[in-house]
């Protein structure tokens, strides 16, 4: 005795997944661009010294396959962040023997985490990709 | 309600052997007076982490504990054990710049604490 299960419409399903993948990537990259700006503003507003503010930058939303990301803060590249700025930023963010930490990167990320999540969820919802 | 500062104070007071510690910055008359090993801790952020019925129900505290030592970073006080025992969770850590004036090496360690509000 045997039973047979037949699944129909699999081609349509696979096409939907492929299309959704493309839409998710487009929408998430748009969302990340906005999230990058939100994070940058939050970091700059918390930064205690004007000397560092111009170096808080958005590393353009990037993608590796389906992995989308945006980097915001001091770019770890001497072409973007001179050595003395990197040393100062490190000392301000994390503190030293002589000064307590005045965190503006971590505290901005921490406080914006829920807003960024809400933004990305709203973007995906508006695009009809999630309920 | 026990404040986050009291929680960190209690955790660091339990270190054995005892290590001098201070909130924000360990201040002495001169750099030379600084202990060979000491700890400075700071509250980095305290953000609402969860809401229900338009009210905050959970808050996340991010604490940085900086350990400074003249003898290097190979052997350090058991801060992890003390903080974990007090209910904190371990976060990232990073080496701080060597201080040529006071001759201290530094290691900053982040800890998270979630508190029901």
Protein described:
The complex is a heterodimer of chains A (131) and B (117). Chain A has helices at residues 10-46, 83-94, 106-126, and strands at 56-64, 67-74. Chain A has 131 residues and is of the alpha+beta class. Chain A has one domain (20-114). A two-stranded antiparallel ribbon of chain A has the order 1-2. In chain A, helix 1 (10-46) packs antiparallel against helix 3. Chain A starts with 9 loop residues before the first helix and ends in a 5-residue tail after the last helix. Chain B has 117 residues and is mainly beta. Chain B has a single domain (4-116), classed as Alpha-Beta Plaits, CATH 3.30.70.1700. Chain B is 15% helix and 50% strand. Chain B contains two helices and five strands. A five-stranded mixed β-sheet of chain B has the order 1-2-3-5-4, with helices on one face. In chain B, a hairpin with a 2-residue loop joins strand 2 and strand 3 (55-69). Chain B is elongated. The interface between A and B is medium-sized, with 18 and 27 residues.
What is this entry, summarized?
The complex is a heterodimer of chains A (131) and B (117). Chain A is of the alpha+beta class and 131 residues long. Chain A has three helices and two strands.
Shape of chain A: elongated
Biggest β-sheet: strands ordered side by side in the sheet of chain B: 1-2-3-5-4
Question: How many domains is the backbone of chain A divided into?
Answer: 1
CA-based shape of chain B: elongated
Radius of gyration of chain B: 16 Å
CATH architecture assignment name of chain B: 2-Layer Sandwich
Measured by DSSP, the beta-strand proportion of chain A falls in: 5-15%
CATH T-level topology of chain B: Alpha-Beta Plaits
Number of strands of chain A: 2
Output the structural class of chain B. Answer: mainly beta
Q: Helix and strand string of chain B, N-terminal first?
A: HEEEHEE
- Distance between the terminal alpha carbons of chain B, to the nearest Å? 9 Å
Count of individual domains of chain B: 1
Helix share of residues of chain B?
10-25%
Low-confidence stretches of chain B: none
């Amino acid at each position: 005795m045997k039973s047979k299960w037949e699944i129909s419409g699999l081609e349509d399903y696979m096409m939907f997944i492929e299309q959704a993948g493309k839409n998710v990537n487009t929408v998430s990259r748009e969302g990340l661009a906005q999230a990058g700006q939100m994070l940058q503003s939050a970091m700059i507003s918390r930064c205690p010294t004007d000397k560092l503010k111009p170096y808080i930058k958005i590393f353009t939303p990037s993608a590796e396959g389906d992995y989308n990301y945006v980097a915001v803060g001091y770019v770890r590249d001497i072409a973007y962040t001179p050595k003395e700025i990197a040393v100062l930023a490190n000392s301000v963010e994390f503190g030293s023997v002589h000064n307590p930490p005045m965190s503006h990167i971590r505290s901005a990320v921490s406080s914006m985490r829920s807003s960024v999540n809400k933004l990305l969820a709203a973007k995906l919802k508006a695009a009809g990709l999630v309920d | 309600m026990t404040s986050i500062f009291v929680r960190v104070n209690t955790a660091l007071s339990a270190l054995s052997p005892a290590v001098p510690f201070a909130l924000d910055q360990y201040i002495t008359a001169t750099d030379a007076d600084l202990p060979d090993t000491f700890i400075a801790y700071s509250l980095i952020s305290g953000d609402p982490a969860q809401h229900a019925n338009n009210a905050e129900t959970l808050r996340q505290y991010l604490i940085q504990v900086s350990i400074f030592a003249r003898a290097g970073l190979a052997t350090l006080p058991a801060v992890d054990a003390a903080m974990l025992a007090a209910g904190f969770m371990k976060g990232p850590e990073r080496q701080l710049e060597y201080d040529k004036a006071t001759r201290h090496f530094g290691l900053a360690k982040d800890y998270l604490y979630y508190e029901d509000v």
